[in-house]
Amino acid sequence: MTRLGRNAFGIALALTGVGAIAAGQEEESWIIQNARIHTLAEGAEPIESGSILIRDGRIVEIGADVTAPAGAAVIDAAGMDVYPGMMDSVSQLGLTEIGSISATVDTVELGEMNPHLRAATAIHPSSEHLPVARANGITHAVVAPGRLGGFGGGGAGISGQASIVHLDGWTVEEMDIDASAGMVLTWPTLSTRSFNLATFSMDRRSFREAKEEYDRQVAELGEVLDAARRYAAAGEAGARERDIRLAALGPVVGGEMPLLILAQGEREIRGAVEFTKEQGVKMILLGGSEAWKVKELLVEHGIPVILGPTQRLPGEEDEAYDQPFTTPGELHDAGVTVAFATFGSSNSRLLPYEAGHAVGYGLPQEAAIRAITVVPAQLFGLAEDFGTLEEGKVANLIVVNGDPLEIRTEVEHVFVNGVPVSLDNRHQSLYERYRSRPHPER
Amino acid sequence: MVRRIPPPRDRRLLAPLAVFLVAAVATSAAAQLSSRAVADAGPRDWAIAGGMVHVGNGTVLDEATVVIRDGLIVSVEAGSDAPAGMGRLDASGKHVYPGFITALSDLGLGAAAPRGGQAGGPGGRPSPPPPSRGPEDRPDTFSWRLAADDLQADDDRMAARRRTGFTSAVTAPRGGIVGGRAAFLNLAGDDARDLVLDPDVAVMVRLETRGFRSFPGSMMGVLAYLRQLFMDASHYAEIWRMYEEDPAGLARPRYDRALAPLVPAAAGEQAVLLPAALDKEVRRMVGLAREFGIRPVLYGGHEAAESAAFLAEHGVPILVNLDWPKADPDADPDAQVPLRALRLRDRAPAGPAVLAAAGVRFAFYRGEAPRSGGGPPGGRGGSGDDLAAVRQAVERGLDREAALTALTLAPAEIFGVADRVGTLQAGRIANLVIADQDIFEDEAKVETVFVDGVIHRVDAEDDEETDGGETPGDEG
Asked: Is B102 helix (H, G, I), strand (E, B) or coil?
């Protein structure tokens, strides 16, 4: 049997399971039994053979001795592992379907200052990418507006508020976890060369020119935050005029909402850190290709990093070939808080392999799995409800037949918001379709 | 006129034109010389006495005298005796060299057109050519163009270069995959026609692409085009030869102004200038030349050290760009410079020493940069830079005599004019440089330059030169 065939077999099994569950769905409670449970709770060892009882969207009971209540649907997970559902810390799930068809892309607004945009508004609950990501164990994700350093680059400025959603639901409201989880800021890059899409060539300018523009952009950001502070103060003093942009920045200058600053180069990261310290606002670094050059700075200021896709070429010609792979381990060893993200939609399904690859290059296994579960929940203030398998938490979890960071591991069951979800997805249906295509006589 | 030249009777298609031009130049030059002799107040004939004379063929004569008459060298002999009836220039304690030759330039073509401007003749920019679809449209091919036809005597970059000891230059037409044919010039004269020593020394080729809208838009397109072009040129020569022998019963071949001038090059009779800054480009261009039996003269040579053995094996000469790769002063100070670039910057000036040791014939030029060679396209009129750059090469191990050869005899030989310039020998054109000390010493200053026997003094104070005709020299 080919590998694909085996996978399909696994998927088919999983489907049968879900079908059985769906039949008894009036019960509204589920119990997963005989599983090795990786709770990821602080200091807790895995439960070698335990059960999890799920009701009303939450984990009601977890442990080695859980009695199955009458009417609960039973999932026998003998020989399988249960983990918290994975969280993609930065994605564009639901915002973009097919990159080259602009009607399906809703990631950016015109202009450089759009703090009043909220990603949740644009999320398409029926996006084909959601079930694909889900089938690989991603149960919830941060959805961030902006170019996120994609093709064409540029896009410096505030692109809007990132929203955190469950990857299941008929409506955005059903999916909602936190519609305003962070303010996405693409840090200006100081670059003497830029790609000109109009002429399809590289434009060059002097360093002085580039520096002037950079300084201007940073100064403008500072001015906007100052204005937001004045606006908030005026509001408290009774001013009635409303400005949706400045209002949206209120939680940022108030220190409640983090700035999610996308910056790749060392100089840009340093600039962003300095800026947030001056402004007294919370910062989470996104991307961070050269974060390994500023480990001490990040530790000193307690700035966590959500690493961009690490399955890529080194940034500089003379960088070590494996620098993107070793960066997570280096940051972790230095004491930097690290989470992984895919920054995309169709590739969100690859999140576990971002973490898995880093394990191959020095990141401890435990830290890797935490970096796609517990850590992101903590970064976004969701640790009370997400990230670990503990009583009272939201039941976003996965049942797998091995190490979830391994490519060969298959996801058997996924619970999102306390409900088992279908693992059917476009990849699989296309597979089925072409497997059963008519064959000419062999 | 050109259009009425009959198709080739021999393989040297250009012969009629060349003969015509040479004749025209010779006639006018002779007229010029005689009229000038009458007009000038200063002496026409000179004895440069008592200097250390570097003949340029390896011989060095201490305390020798060079006698110049009617623009030619009459004698080079030991001693400081000067014949009577001519200007005497006391060169004792000074060094006398053959005039330096910059082996590729756009000197004499006037100031370069603004960047992005379409290369063309002087006076205005023609509108951009229509997009070409393939080799049949002969994209960016101007083989019929002669740099000699576009010269402007008032291009003051020539005087600037002359002040640094350069008396001759090879000038190639600007722009184009096949830019046209390069001329060998002497860098002095009142009239553009006085400049030309040989109007047609080599075909200038560049690996230029035309963006995404016109063929060729890629390197592979350019190379495919060049191959087609040389095939077509050979075919063109062949079919015209057959037709010339007996036209009866043969369809009349088509005249093609792009192909006709390439016939001598395709037959290996005329040099073709091919860009090759990096070693891989050297190998690529030599491969192309060997495939078609053409005689390559490479230009670029910033990885010459790597290419030296290969060039020696194939007997291919190379012109080394003295615009050594260096950091862009305007670059981002934090940008990581790749090791590759640092290595090139370090090694490029050491290349000539390796070329000399390997026995490769090489000459120097500045400016015309192949794609990856760095530096802006087109010539730079900077003064003093060339010798400073050669001194860098000397510092990095290049033998001084070899450096002198690369500035004099080597380019003369490469472009087939060594019977006229390149050495200080009786009968050669009187192009000389007099310096206050060994020219490869950092402090060395060029004091006097002779071009075609005419004296040009370099005033060290303001870097201006005074013409010998107006200010008679210190005659003995």
From this structure: strand
What domains can be seen in chain A, in order of their start residue?
A: 1-85+387-442 (2.30.40.10), 86-386 (3.20.20.140)
pLDDT tens-digit series, residues B370-425: 544 333 333 333 434 899 999 999 999 999 999 999 999 999 999 999 999 999 99
* Cα→Cα distances B415→A90, A316, B95, B310, B421, Å: 64, 43, 26, 21, 11
- Of A352, A359, A336, A361, whose CA–CA distance to A407 is shortest? A352
The distance of A373 to chain B (nearest Cα, Å) reads 36
Helix locations, B40-127, DSSP H: none
Most A-contacting residue of B210, B328, B332, B344 (CB-CB within 10 A), to test interface: B332
Beta-ladder partners of B446: B435
Q: Which residues, other chains included, contact A8 with Cβ-Cβ below 8 Å and sequence gap of 6+? A: A428, A431, A432, A435
Q: Quote the tokens at residue A100.
A: 């080259």
Q: pLDDT digit string (tens) for A262-310? A: 999 999 999 999 999 999 999 999 999 999 999 999 999 999 999 988 8
DSSP per position, B426-445 = TTSB--EEEESS-TTSTT--
Which of A317, A321, A323 to substitute to test the interface with B, most B CBs within 10 Å? Answer: A317
Token pair, residue B290, equals 């060997």
Determine the number of helices (DSSP H) and then strands (DSSP E) in chain B.
12, 17
B245: its two tokens:
């022998």
Q: What is the mean pLDDT of residues B295-299?
A: 97
Task: Tally C-beta pairs within 8 A across A and B.
Answer: 27
Q: Which of B213, B273, B199, B142 is nearest to B25 (CA)?
A: B199
Predicted-complex ipTM score: 0.73
The C-alpha atoms of residue A426 and residue A94 are separated, in whole angstroms, by 15
Domains of chain B: 40-98+422-476 (2.30.40.10), 100-112+134-421 (3.20.20.140)
B202 alpha carbon, distance to own chain's centre: 9
> Can you tell me the distance from the alpha carbon of B101 to that of B165, in angstroms, rounded to the nearest whole number?
9
Which chain A residue is nearest to residue B334, measuring alpha carbons?
A267
Q: What is the pTM of this model?
A: 0.80
